[in-house]
Amino acid sequence: MKFGHFDDQNKEYVITSPRTPLPWINYLGCENFFSLVSNTCGGYSFYKDAKLLRLTRYRYNNVPYDSNGHYYYIKDGDTIWNPGWMPSKTELDSYECRHGMGYSVFTGVKNGLMAQLTDFVPMGSTCEINKLTLKNTSDKKKDFSVFSYVEFCLWNAMDDMTNFQRNFSTGEVEIHVGGSQLFHKTEYRERRNHYAVYAVNASVDGFDTDRDSFLGAYGENSAPSVVVNDQSKNSVASGWAPVGSHHLKVALEPGEEKTYIFVLGYVENPVNEKWVGRAEDGIINRAPADALLARFDTTEKADAALAELKAYWDKLLGHFSISSSEEKLDRMVNVWHQYQCMVTFNMSRSASYFESGIGRGMGFRDSCQDLLGFVHLIPDRARERILDIAATQFEDGSAYHQYQPLTKKGNADIGSGFNDDPLWLIAAAAAYIKETGDYSILDESTPYDSDPSKATDFMEHLRRSFNYTINHLGPHGLPQIGRADWNDCLNLNCFSEEPGESFQTFGPSEGPNAESVFIAGMFVKYGKDYVKICRHKGLCDEADTAQKAIEQMEKTVMDAGWDGEWYLRAYDHYKHKIGSKECEDGKIFIEPQGFCVIAEIGKDEGLCLKAMQSVEKYLDTKYGIVLLQPPYHRYHVELGEISSYPPGYKENAGIFCHNNPWISIAETVIGRGNRAWQVYTRTCPAYIEDISEIHRTEPYVYSQMIAGKDAPNFGEAKNSWLTGTAAWTFLDVSQYILGIRPDYDGLIIDPCIPDTMDGFTAKRKFRGNTYHITVRNPAHVQKGVTKLIVDGATIDGNMIPAINGTGHDVTVEVTMG
Fold first, then answer.
1. CATH 2.60.420.10 segments of the chain
2. Domain named Glycosyl hydrolase 94 supersandwich: which ranges (predicted)?
3. 775-806 tens-digit pLDDT
């Protein structure tokens, strides 16, 4: 069942029913100011940091769903309705939501009145624009009221929802221009150098800034007291909960329309001593706000800003595009894959409808993986991000697992000790160098733990990342897992003294002996990149030493990490096998099958093919590949959190979409294009749009998890948008299935496609030049390039050497066979 459709020409998803299975959201903002908006106008806004600089409130897990947002109420006679349906939930004569690239448009019609709300964050600004157009489509004059509404957050989102004894006494506002401009200045007395402004470019007939006055003391936002009575109270919040609401009385002749521009902005200015503590004079320096509002105070200015935003996305998405016989493939590759990758660049895992924006911040591992999906779009910002991530690393090569984007300090609750983290930094650096050819990043001075007094060149960070694994090997010679590897819930250094006791965790000084075959696969895969980087730097002895360590690790995996038909997952602290046919539950895991095959460990010995066959035999389902089988049916203290989930959910045999592309990529390594394609399409949103009532999350972006075959809700997704699935799947389809892959010395063309596909064309910008690529598959093979012609000249092999200079258009013809 569908709840909308793709509009490929306009790069939009059109939602035609407000009753989607879950709120379907979009992200507004490309730089520092961000808003999340659902298909019914729910959501919230923040500046840079969703925890520390939150402008508007959002109540997660609310009943009813998604009932906080930026709302516009229309009071037309006795009828109260919203353009986006919520929160009044009045039945509309027609409804439509269009989620586009950085903007959303909501159109509602009721009783001969059309309201269209265009919502976006302009480039180079710190505000959200709401353009509200009202049109009388009836044959009679209409007189009605419009009430805007936002609920301000008291900046620190965690404190805002917990510290009520303080926050119920700190709300302050200022009202200017007769109520057209509402300033939220909470805690300005603390010498904060920022405030929020909510304004409309028209004279108003009233305003409210106190929530109880607007809603009524026991009122609800579905029918606020002020709206029901069609009269604002001109309330001024003092303590309690500050809100922003404007009242506009509108008269429209038949066919007439009017447009209003509402601006919700973040404003920053230096604190002036004379303002502090003098509330009678006002403490807001309005000049920066006046300048911000003047940029968007007319419809023409707002329209120009929206056009600039659309042009930005058109240019960005022009870096990579394809045309094939597969309409769904084209729309995902050309638009939605890359759009989601850019959102993960901005958000990491911090703010979604499943992440509160309070706990996670930026992830070290997460952000390194996300970079794989956006480095081709914004290489300069990718460079900054890599160095930003590296600056949070510790001197021994380990890292904060997560850190706050403003403070660059780690999450104390999560800490460090995830032993895969250091190797992801090598993966990110290699991806950047392959894309740009810019080795100068290796010479950048980069601190440890954000301490400038502890700085080395970035190359030293990579060295310590590589050596961290070498310096942390377990009894079998495999990498120690630490607190966990990629699978945060597989905590194999847990123990209890007696059955039934709560578990403890071994500290570094006590061991820990648990080992990860997955990290071993990572070490081999990204160790090969480290060797190439060393050789480019002229560090031949170091490269040779690293190569020997890699070869030894390959041998160790084949000796101690192979279970006969698939790769083991790990050994726990007691040297018991995890992910083995000897286990009662959890006999086979997805992660090592994917990464050990990507690393080509045992490929010549046939191990890679056997592992992929085992994945297909034991882990395959119609909705994707589950993480493990069989699921854990009881809690295992020695395994940690993984067995705390019911069978079929999350790490306990859920379909973790993040590592499904590892299997698809692995299938291309052994040349099985049909199987790689099957794995890709089973979790690809455009290919499962028709089962939206089962899948439930947005049909235009990936989710982190789909309930596995052992779950009652098999096929139901959770945790959409902010997931490494976005980057990994784009990497899979662009670089391995389509096979257009940047490398250190040029651009590799190595498609691995289903044998039913005749070929495709692609445009790929690479190091300042544009490659126009035509791939033909006359023999209908799955993999293999028999001819590569570049600008009329035949090239040996399948790599196009990097071109000196920029601005070239390069014609590439590829024949598979």
1. 740-816
2. 11-269
3. 999 999 999 999 999 999 999 999 999 998 99
Strands laid side by side in the 793-794 sheet: 320-323, 759-766, 769-776, 809-816, 785-790, 793-794
Fold of 740-816: Maltose phosphorylase, domain 3 (2.60.420)
Side chain identity, residue 69: G
- Tokens coding 642: 């993984």
Give the percent of the chain with pLDDT over 70.
94
Domain 472-618 sits in CATH at: 1.50.10.10
Residues of the chain with CATH 1.50.10.10: 472-618
Query: Chain centroid to CA 137: how far?
Result: 40
Q: What is the pLDDT of residues 298-322, one digit of tens each?
A: 999 999 999 999 999 999 999 999 9
Q: Which residues contact 499 (CB under 8 A, 6 or more apart)?
A: none
d(CA 565, CA 562): 7
> What is this structure's pTM?
0.95
The Cα 766–Cα 434 span in angstroms is 10
- Of 488, 585, 743, 755, which residue is the catalytic one? 488
Q: Are 431 and 441 spatial neighbours (Cβ–Cβ below 8 Å)?
A: no
- State the span(s) of the chain assigned CATH 2.70.98.40: 29-314
Residue 376's closest CA among 421, 324, 341, 426?
A: 341
From CA 763, how far away is CA 773, in angstroms rounded? 6
- Is residue 695 within 8 Å of 655, Cβ to Cβ? no
Q: Compute how many other C-beta atoms are within 10 angstroms of the C-beta atom of residue 61.
A: 6
Establish how many alpha carbons lie within 13 A of residue 206's alpha carbon, considering only the half-sphere containing its beta carbon: 20
- Span 418-432, pLDDT tens digits: 999 999 999 999 999
Question: DSSP letter string over 470-531?
Answer: HTSB-TTSSBB-BT-SSSTT--TTEE-SSTTSPPEE--GGG----EEHHHHHHHHHHHHHHH
- The residue ranges of DSSP E strands in 57-205, in sequence order, are 71-76, 79-81, 94-99, 103-110, 113-120, 127-136, 142-155, 173-176, 181-184, 194-200
Q: What is the pLDDT of residues 210-243, one digit of tens each?
A: 999 999 999 999 999 999 999 999 999 998 899 9
CATH code for 29-314?
A: 2.70.98.40
Residue 272 pLDDT > 80: no
Note if 544 is an active site residue.
no
Mean of pLDDT over the chain: 93
Q: Which of the pair, 581 or 269, is modelled with greater confidence?
A: 581
